[in-house]
Amino acid sequence: MVRPEPAPVWWRRFDWALYAAIGSVLVAAGGLAFTGVSTYYATQVAIDQLEQARDEAGTQERRQASMVSAWSERQKNGGISGVLANRSLDPVTSVYVKGTATSPGKTDGRSFLVLIETLPPCSKIFLPAKAVGRKADEFAANARIRVETVWFRDAQSLRWRRRSDAPLAPSAGPQELPELRNTSGSNNFSKRLAEAVATAKPMTKCGQ
Question: Which terminus of the chain faces fewer neighbouring Cβ atoms within 10 Å, N or C?
Fold first, then answer.
């Protein structure tokens, strides 16, 4: 009588090759998932770093230009003078200044446009009525001078525009406005404007 073969022990009942293959697939899938997540976060970090670098470059690019400004100050004779200032440690060049001069008792100002070849570093220039007119007496001595827009080139030869009612912005240069082709004068040709530039006053806390 033939005896039945004994049942194989439990560990011999499993197809270990199959389970090993399944395990390998699961491990590989897990590895791919981990790699995908790692790659995603690495990409996000790289994008953030790139954006930060761009922001820093933009801030550095604007640094000198942000130190150029204009405002008005009252004079002893009752008039108001325009003031142009450069708080940076480098000069700015090709400075076009557009504004209006309003005589006492009047509400409508007359436009002027002057060109200052170089605005020295860490200095401010006063622009009284006699300095911005085509003639010394074109505007009343106690006229109110209001600077509306300033165009200039920084030390990196980048062009900028600063308006009294808008933030600093990159500029295409003087060709932005047709009237810039007909200036009231340049400090290379106007003695009165040249004197205003020559008497530039030093400023404190420059380069900050």
Answer: N
Rounded Cα distance, 119 and 152, in Å: 9
Specify whether the CB–CB gap between 78 and 61 falls below 8 A. no
Residues 82-94 have pLDDT tens digits of: 999 999 999 999 9
Nearest 5°: phi and psi at 170?
-60, 155
Mean pLDDT, rounded, of the chain: 80
Q: What does the block give as tokens for 46? A: 């790289």
Rounded to whole angstroms, how far apart are CA atoms 102 and 99? Answer: 10
Cα 191 to chain centroid distance, Å, stands at: 33
The model scores a pTM over 0.85: no
How far is 31 from 105, CA to CA, in rounded Å?
A: 82
Residue 108, both tokens: 């409508």
| Average pLDDT for 120-148 | 91
In this structure, are residues 132 and 139 in contact, taking their beta carbons and an 8 Å threshold? yes
Report how far residue 159's alpha carbon sits from residue 152's, in angstroms, rounded to the nearest whole number.
Answer: 6
